[in-house]
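Hello, quick one for you while I still have it in my head. A protein chain has come my way and I'm curious about its shape. Can you walk me through what the tokens say about the fold? No rush at all, and the record is pasted right below.
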Amino acid sequence: PLTELITIKPQMIHSSLDQTLKNLILNNRLATDSRQVQPDDVFIAISCANVNSHIQQALEAGTKAIILEEKDQGDWQNRYPLVQFIVVPNARYTLAQIAKALYNDQP
């Protein structure tokens, strides 16, 4: 799983990514495994039957932002107002776009 992205340069980020995502990618570690989240990481919540547990675990670990799908949004923002929640149509697709941007559009 993608748990860390290091030495990311602005020119590596694909123009189709939202500016908020670009800033998060450039300035923070990314994690898809809630057990690996460290303070100030960005957690990408892949939708599954246990997504709420994974989000809770990432929050308890000190994540600064969570990328999640609208159907998983729930009441998280009201409960954790200091955490940035970025709602995307599809978290897996967003993760793929991030990877594509970082690896220069490799297949």
The beta strands are 30-31, 42-44, 65-69, 84-88.
